Amino acid sequence: MAELNETIHQTVRLRIMAALVTLAPNEEVEFTYLRDLLEVTDGNLGAHLRKLEEAGYINLNKAFVERKPRTYICATTDGRKVFSEHVAALEAILKSK
Amino acid sequence: MDISPTEAEEALAAIQTMMQKTRRSISSSGAYKFLILWGVIWMLGFLGSQFLPKEIASYVWIGLDILGGILSMVIGVRLNRGVRSSAPTTSGKRIGFFWLLLFFYCVAAIGIAWPVDGKQFAMFIILFVTVGWIAMGLLLSFASVWWGLALLGLSLVSYFLLEDYFYLIMAFVGGGGMIALGIYVRNRW
Q1: Which DSSP symbol is given to B174?
Q2: Domain spans of chain A?
Q3: Which residue from B135, B108, B134, B125 is spatially nearest to B159, judged by alpha carbons?
């Protein structure tokens, strides 16, 4: 049976992962785009991204676009797997109600 | 880790909302604008073909196509830069070359066959556009293949069986359909 994941379950991290797994596996989202999508501050988003990166659920890629530094974020294969297991666990809790 | 069913329900709702918001954000970044733009161009162009003298209608089409090309470029350049693909350069270039090649095929086919009237001319362009649309659907988003096939089927039926209403059907069902699909993508996708 799928288990809940404590790292992912935190509200902001849950929404970050939901946004990232919506993208195609070969796509990544820019930091400010994700920040606006989630309606959080730079510092708040940065802290949660670090947690997810440490857990190996996301990758942060730094690049220069038109000479400006940009950070792109994507869910890893492991992150996608853990997220779908977390969703399955949530659905199981609802069904057992 | 234990949570109540109510918390699970709230978490699932938050996930659903975020996924929908992300999809909308990506789709509203510009792709739907192409559909609305070319829907309006089809509608105006075919209405011109129906109601204006042949020569004036040709100039209207040329003007609309140039305008459509310029606006498509502007939309393309301003398309969402917040999301990028790890393999965009190659596939983007290949898609660009595909449309360029299709455009030359279309011009060559028209030059060789030399359609005798406006309906044949329009049908040639529709055939090439719908083939391109279906090919893009097969490569990028399979759901849009059905819309392309529907437009192709409608165009052929109108051309062969409803000749007198061909331009009007293309204006309202073809052009109007593209506008409706664009609005649907914008609001509901």
Answers
A1: I
A2: 6-95
A3: B125
Of B167, B155, B154, B160, whose CA–CA distance to B60 is shortest?
Answer: B167
Question: Which has the higher per-residue pLDDT, A60 or B97?
Answer: A60
- Whether residues A14 and B14 touch (CB distance < 8 A) is answered with yes
- Asked if residue B83 lies in contact with residue B23, where contact means CB atoms within 8 angstroms, the answer is no
How far apart (Å, rounded) are the C-alpha atoms in residues B163 and B169?
A: 10
In this structure, how many other beta carbons lie within 10 angstroms of the beta carbon of residue B171? 22
Q: Which fold has domain A6-95?
A: Arc Repressor Mutant, subunit A (1.10.10)
ipTM over 0.90: yes
pTM for the whole structure: 0.59
- A14, B14 Cβ separation under 8 angstroms: yes
CB within 8 Å: B12 and A19: no
> Hey, of A3, A10, A20, A23, which one would you mutate to test binding to chain B, going by the most B CBs within 10 A of its CB?
A23
pLDDT band of B80, cuts 50, 70, 90: low
| Nearest CA among A40, A39, A30, A28 for reference residue A68 | A30
